[in-house]
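Late entry, written up from scratch paper. The run itself happened at the end of the previous shift, but nothing got recorded in the book at the time, so transcribing now.
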Amino acid sequence: MDDIDFAILEHLTQNSRIHSTEIANDLGLATSTVHKRIEKLQSNGIVKQFTVLVDPVSVGLNITTYIGLRIEQNKRINVINKLKNINDVLEIYELLEPYDLLLKVRTYDIHSLKENVLHVLNNIDGVVESNSLLTTKCHKEKTCFLVRK
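Output as recorded:
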């Protein structure tokens, strides 16, 4: 990746709907050059997807919960694969401490958290312990912030 790729990514992270022509005009490049670079960023897995960041509360997803899991290490892959199939689990991270995995979960209410996530977690072979942190309000959420080195 060079400075042009980073500049294109900066534009896309601000507005993923921005047209290649607008990026090209801002950077003094041909539209075809920007388009090809965006395709290359996608094919190389740098740009995973173009998406919309929705305000979860506006669509009724009122509960954001972080869940720390302790798991049996020999069942790690199976546990992670089962977690990937739970719709309300948005993100899964491996940790060094104090848990093995950290989940970010969004649900409509406490009942759906219990039914769709917590009960499912309790029935996954290899999950030893779970601890939940329910949030009350989000003050900042972004996908990422790019800083050139």
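Helices lie at 3-14, 20-27, 31-43, 76-84, 110-122.
(Scratch paper discarded after transcription.)
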